[in-house]
Amino acid sequence: MSRLAFLILVATVSSSSCPPGAGAAEPPNIVFIFSDDQCFDTVAAFGHPEVETPNLDRIAKRATTFTRAYNMGSWSGAVCVASRMMLNSGRFLWDAETVYQTAEQERQAGRWWSESMKAAGYRTYMTGKWHCRADAQKSFDVARDVRGGMPSQTPAGYNRPLIDPETGAVTDPWSPSDPKFGGFWEGGTHWSEVVANHSVDFLSEASAIDQPFFMYLAFNAPHDPRQSPAEYVAKYPVDQVKLPKNFLPEYPYAEAMAAGRRLRDEKLAPFPRTPLAVKTNRQEYYAIITHMDAMIGRILDAVKATGKQDNTWIFFTADHGLACGQHGLMGKQNLYDHSVRVPLMVIGPDAKAGQTIDHPVYLQDIMPTTLELAGIKQPEHVQFNSLLPMLGGADSPYDVVYGAYLDKQRSIRTENYKLIVYPIANKMRLYDMKQDPLEMNDLAGSASHAKTVKRLFSRLETLQAEMNDGLNLGELSRYTGS
Q1: Cα 442 → chain centroid
Q2: Separation CA 368–CA 345 (nearest Å)
Q3: What residues does the Sulfatase N-terminal domain cover (predicted)?
Q4: CATH topology agreement for domains 29-396 and 407-480
């Protein structure tokens, strides 16, 4: 008996006792759509008043949405790397770092997402951003136009736009829709369009074969340089773009938390931040999201055209969020929700359309979810958890959310509060996430919240041990009486 036939037999026999999805008569197809740097709220269906995302809205209408999905953080300034290494290895942040350099050996040993799917009988496809040290061409049966971390940025794309303090004249040498700057236009076709083109081709091929397919479709958008055709930029006139309510000219602890003026992401806009610079960056951010959304629409149509939509699970998420002008920050190297929280939507036979789940998860939980759908027993090295029990009504396996960036930032998020710790600055910040979701009112110095700070700090130290996080938070322990 072949491995695929055996898995089908096991799934059929055990269907009465399996969680949602695991008892399918035949293995479901899986389409994973991954955006880059997309903040959790930048979907019109989630209530964003400006951005246009008709196709992500299509997904939201059919999907179960996890409203509190997070990335744990990063061991490097390239947060994308850590997020994707966690996703493909299945390991929590610091354990993923330990195998980062040996990712190709992990792949060869079968301790890799796509290799598990191959072993379960899936035909595997990949296109777009990879950013892992494992060989993408060997990780998937078919890989097309494997991209690096980001399109090439140009000097003209930084420190813009500028305002002359004497005359008020605005200078901006860069254009998001001019192909002469390269970036997403390198090669002649916008990279988001390339992802869609390959995806449609893959799906056309898959429609003609009986083998189940697993597709890893990774956009570089909306990462900078945020470029899109002129008609998309024109949808968002700068004078109509709203300034974030939590706008700051500069973040007071940026240098101590390693997100200061020397960080590449933070150089995109001038210091101090101006409303015009932030609005311009947000204009281009919304435009490239809307352009990517159009490409996602093509992918959704192609899935439907296969005739296999009813037995296809679709997952959409991002590797992390982005500040893009919030809190005086431009990048994602911080632990505010705009940078660690992501959209996460799941379409499938057992995912209720239009349902929301408001309990915490990590975006990397998608990996063991797909393994369970494929009939694979979760490997011992995989630390994240399948979402299928939660789709069936179970509680989240996580009571709190952990966050970390280098040795400069730590955080813990409960349903009601978030505590952010800056050990170099010897500073903590506490936010009431129910009353203050934009994280504007720091309560850490309030005597009435001292017990909350102490309780969360103690839980954070326990969580560090669970995460193999060896950072000593030092003087802050005495500050809380720990």
Answers
A1: 26
A2: 15
A3: 28-376
A4: no
Cα(283)–Cα(234) distance, integer angstroms:
9
CB-facing half-sphere around the CA of 131: CA atoms within 13 A: 22
Asked if 400 and 360 touch (Cβ cutoff 8 Å), the reply is yes
What tens digit of pLDDT does each residue of 377-416 get? 999 999 999 999 999 999 999 999 999 999 999 999 999 9
Which amino acid is residue 446, in one-letter code?
S
DSSP annotation string for 233-268: HTTS-GGGSPPPTTB-SS-TTTTTTT-STTSGGGGG
| Cα distances (angstroms) measured from residue 379 to each of 32, 39, 365, 372 | 20, 31, 13, 10
- 3-state secondary structure (DSSP) of residue 141: coil
List the structure tokens of 363.
């975006």
Partners of residue 326 on adjacent β-strands: 247
- Cα separation of 30 and 48, whole Å? 28
CATH topology of domain 29-396: Alkaline Phosphatase, subunit A (3.40.720)
Would residue 302 be called left, alpha or beta, if left means φ above 0 and alpha means ψ between -120 and 50 degrees?
alpha
Task: Quote the pLDDT of residue 478.
Answer: 56
- pLDDT at site 474: 78
The domain ranges of the chain are 29-396, 407-480
What is this structure's pTM? 0.94
Beta strand extents in 132-275 (DSSP E only) = 142-147, 162-163, 170-171, 213-218
Give the residue from 297, 140, 125, 309 showing the smallest Cα distance to 217: 125
**Which of the four pLDDT bands, split at 50, 70 and 90, describes residue 320?**
very high
In degrees and rounded to multiples of 5, residue 252 shows phi and psi of -65, -25
Q: Residue 1: pLDDT above 70?
A: no
The rounded distance, in Å, linking the Cα atoms of 233 and 240 is 12
Residue with tokens 């008043």: 49
Q: What is d(CA 430, CA 448) in angstroms, rounded to the nearest whole number?
A: 12
Considering the domain 407-480, what is its CATH architecture?
2-Layer Sandwich (3.30)
